[in-house]
Write a structure and sequence with these properties.
The complex is a heterodimer of chains A (263) and B (153). Chain A has 263 residues and is an all-alpha fold. Chain A is built from 9 helices and no strands. Chain A has 3 domains: 1-58; 64-122; 125-230, no CATH class. In chain A, helix 1 packs antiparallel against helix 2. The termini of chain A are far apart. Chain B is 76% helix and 0% strand. Chain B is mainly α. Classes of the chains: A mainly alpha (263), B mainly alpha (153). At the A-B interface, helix 1, helix 4, helix 6, helix 7 and helix 8 of A face helix 1, helix 2, helix 3 and helix 4 of B.
């Protein structure tokens, strides 16, 4: 198979399958369609993750390599938080305290794993240098996490009552993520210099701002398209009922309101 | 929700989401004297890519909308035009010499690189949501339930 065809089939078609599958799984009403969507997601993801082998000549395969690299710590974090959360005060299906401890260990290992990818030798390397997708992913993740933690601090204060503990926790998370960014900007890592990290951090900020503005514009136009369609299909106004029609309606209502005799 | 003005609360949330990150990024930019031009090119590329891809996703969701509204063709056509406009604008700006080109040799390579970058950013947003949402959910569900104490009459 030609190199371009390999990239088209194993990366771009797989990505399209993943996207369509996700939309089907989220927005379909039927169970069968949802299952088909989940199968598409699984197949697409598998094909993307294996692109370092199936479409190794394509520069896009760096993204597949990144997905494979972050799969482990992400799953550990996701499952770990699930174990901790659902061993708490939930009315049904509460997990045991052992599962809670396992969850804590999984979260700690997930965080350490991610840190080792920046500060130790676990940095994703593809093919011979630091994976270009990792250089985008890591600063973006830290910056978004920081913004989310700050936002969550305000949301918890706004919605909840007596949520000081959660607010403090969000400050801790935001502080932790910010300190990681400050360390990245001020200290060289084993495979990533501080200047490069700072440049990537600034590009990540520009990227996020662009993504946000583009998304807002698309949603605005979507709303305009739907509004125009709905406003051009207003139901036809009917004339008010005549006296005879009102009288007829009154008779029918009176007949049904009187009821029968008790048996 | 507390008895505050909804609009003001929304603005306050927006400020909390954006301002600390913005200040931090400005601080890094000031201390490292980063390139404004490279950032601007990245911003425009990201905006055009995000606009096109999100419009496409919204176009797909119109099929679900169509189920409830006797499958109208008008919004579908409208969104197709929006997606087409996004692709056309991106191609137009990319083909204007070095205006929006980054480290790529051709317009097609830049466009595909933009999509991969968008996917990477999306992955970063998902992982960040797992971290912050996970911490918050774990804390909320491990807080002792509030008890209502009734005074003896």
């Amino acid at each position: 198979m030609e190199e371009a065809t390999q990239a088209l089939v194993f990366f771009w078609f797989a990505g399209f399958l993943f996207l369509v599958g996700s939309l089907l799984a989220f927005f379909s009403k039927g169970n069968a369609q949802r299952k088909v969507g989940m199968v598409f997601v699984g197949l697409g993801f598998l094909s993307l993750v294996t692109t370092p082998w199936t479409a190794s000549s394509s520069p896009s395969s760096a993204f597949g390599h990144l997905l494979g690299s972050i799969l482990g710590p992400t799953v550990l974090l996701g499952v770990g938080f699930y174990q901790i959360a659902f061993s708490g005060h939930v009315p049904v299906g509460r997990l045991s305290s052992t599962e809670r401890r396992v969850g804590v260990v999984m979260v700690v290992v997930g965080v350490v794993w991610f840190e080792a990818m920046h500060w130790w030798t676990l940095t994703p390397t593809y093919p011979d240098e630091v994976n270009s997708s990792w250089l985008i992913f890591w600063p973006t993740m830290l910056l978004v996490g920081f913004a989310f933690a700050c936002g969550a601090y305000a949301v918890v204060g706004q919605i909840g009552d007596r949520r000081v503990k959660e607010q403090r926790l969000m400050i801790v998370v935001a502080g932790f993520l910010m300190s990681l960014m400050v360390l990245g900007v001020t200290m060289d890592g084993p495979s990533l210099a501080r200047e490069r990290f700072a440049t990537e951090l600034l590009l990540a900020a520009a990227d996020l701002f662009g993504v946000f503005v583009g998304m807002l514009l698309a949603m605005l136009l979507f709303a305009v398209v739907l509004f125009v369609y709905e406003s051009t299909h207003v139901p036809v106004h009917l004339p008010p009922p005549s006296k005879e029609q009102l009288q007829q309606a009154g008779t029918i209502v009176a007949r049904n309101l009187s009821g029968g005799e008790d048996e | 929700m507390k008895a505050t003005n909804d609009g003001r609360a929304f603005v306050r949330l927006g400020i909390w989401f954006t301002l600390p990150s913005l200040l931090f990024v400005l601080g890094v930019w000031w201390s490292t004297s980063g390139s404004f031009e490279a950032g601007f090119v990245r911003f425009v590329n990201a905006m055009l890519t995000s606009f096109t891809l999100v419009s496409f996703m919204l176009l797909v969701t119109l099929f679900a909308y169509g189920d409830a509204r006797k499958r109208p063709i008008a919004p579908l056509t409208g969104m197709l035009m929006v997606v087409g406009a996004g692709i056309g604008l991106t191609m137009f700006f990319l083909s204007q010499g070095e205006l929006l080109m980054e480290d790529n040799a051709s317009v097609r390579a830049q466009y595909l690189s933009n999509i991969v970058r968008f996917a990477t950013t999306s992955a970063a947003i998902v992982v960040a949501s797992v971290v912050v949402g996970g911490v918050l959910l774990a804390s909320l569900l491990n807080t002792p339930q509030k008890q209502i104490l009734f005074e003896e009459e």
